[in-house]
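Here is the promised in-class demo. Please do not try to memorize the tokens; focus on the logic of going from shape to residues.
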């Protein structure tokens, strides 16, 4: 039987997830869509020819009798309430990143899930499903380059809107690295410092851009991540692992190489939707399959919490300029299964 999904938030990624659940993935049907801007919800339902009910309030989607599971793709600050609502209703929920705006908010979700007695939350951290990151992890885990000593990473967006501020470089953008790098290294973070180089002229008063985030893991690996969200030239995700005996790099997305007019060129993608398109498909198919099988196995509420503990320290480091400690509590037995 098809899993009946309710989607809360029909903006950029909400539309994408509804499209993939409808046209690409197997085993699910979108039966309810909500958006505070009702026109967004109506437009996607009509564009895809869905027979889905449109709701003004996301909590009504959670309560709807015909909705088995939720996808939360509304703005970041709304995630916590919708995820807690889904847990309360006993319905599995795929929540886009960040799970909540603070570690405290994520902890409330972790506590509610533990109280519910079974995993009900998958966080939309898609990078661990990306073939490139998986290949990089295989190399690290095989020991081929020895222990990872340093990582040099970059997260570059061509541009962002006027409402994007300095803190969002951490809570909305770096949060992907904060999740994927602890997975990649099988390690957790110990401290962080944030530095601001000369700002690009393409930013505005409320956004310091670019930023350099320097993390140290518990095992002593040093990581630098450049976040540059107005880089203009493309959507570019880089990750280089320097090991004791070699270097491993995240593969570039495949692209035809051209020799033309005295130039050697390959295209750089410009849109996050294209850069991780397969990973989004695989993460959501996994969610659908796991809900049907009765056991969620993807990025957990604990992973959302761990990333937010680090994000909180990064925000503090943005303000202080000092080295800030990152203290992740011990993982509860519930998440060791
Ligand atoms: P967007 O602004 O294009 O869409 C968000 C939609 O949510 C808007 O249509 C807005 O009206 C709606 N909304 C806001 N509050 C709501 C509420 N209380 N109830 C119902 N609808 C509400 O933003 P975008 O880019 O689609 O991002 C949505 C979420 O997905 C964000 O949390 C973002 O961090 C995350 N995201 C994740 C990505 C990933 O790579 N995993 C990529 C892009 C976004
Ligand atoms: C956006 O919300 C995403 O999640 C994208 O993957 C990221 O590159 C971008 O910086 C975020 O704002």
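The designed amino acids, position by position:
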């Amino acid at each position: 039987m098809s899993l009946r999904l309710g989607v809360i938030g029909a903006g950029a990624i909400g539309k994408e997830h509804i499209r993939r659940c409808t046209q690409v993935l197997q085993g699910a049907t979108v039966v309810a869509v909500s958006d505070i801007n009702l026109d967004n919800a109506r437009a996607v339902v009509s564009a895809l020819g869905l027979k889905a009910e449109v709701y003004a309030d996301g909590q009504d989607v959670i309560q709807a009798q015909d909705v088995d599971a939720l996808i939360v793709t509304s703005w970041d600050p709304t995630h916590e309430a919708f995820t807690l609502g889904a847990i309360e209703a006993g319905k599995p929920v795929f929540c886009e990143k960040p799970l909540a705006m603070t570690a405290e908010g994520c902890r409330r979700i972790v506590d509610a899930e533990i109280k519910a007695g079974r995993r009900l939350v998958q966080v939309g951290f898609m990078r661990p499903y990306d073939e490139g990151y998986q290949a990089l992890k295989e190399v690290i885990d095989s020991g081929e380059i020895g222990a990872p000593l340093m990582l040099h990473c970059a997260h570059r967006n061509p541009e962002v809107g006027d409402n994007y501020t300095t803190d969002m470089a951490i809570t909305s953008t770096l949060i992907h690295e904060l999740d994927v790098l602890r997975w990649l290294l099988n390690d957790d973070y110990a401290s962080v410092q944030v530095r601001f180089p000369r700002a690009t002229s393409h930013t505005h008063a409320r956004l310091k851009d670019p930023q350099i985030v320097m993390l140290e893991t518990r095992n002593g690996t040093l990581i630098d991540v450049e976040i540059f969200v107005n880089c203009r030239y493309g959507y570019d995700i880089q990750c280089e692992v320097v090991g004791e005996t070699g270097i491993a790099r995240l593969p570039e997305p495949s692209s035809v190489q051209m020799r033309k007019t005295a130039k050697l060129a390959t295209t750089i993608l410009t849109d996050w939707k294209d850069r991780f398109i397969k990973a989004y498909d695989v993460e959501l198919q996994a969610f659908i399959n796991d809900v049907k099988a009765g056991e969620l196995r993807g990025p957990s509420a604990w992973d959302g919490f761990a990333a937010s503990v680090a994000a909180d320290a990064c925000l503090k480091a943005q303000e202080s300029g000092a080295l800030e400690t990152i203290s992740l509590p011990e993982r509860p037995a519930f998440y060791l299964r």
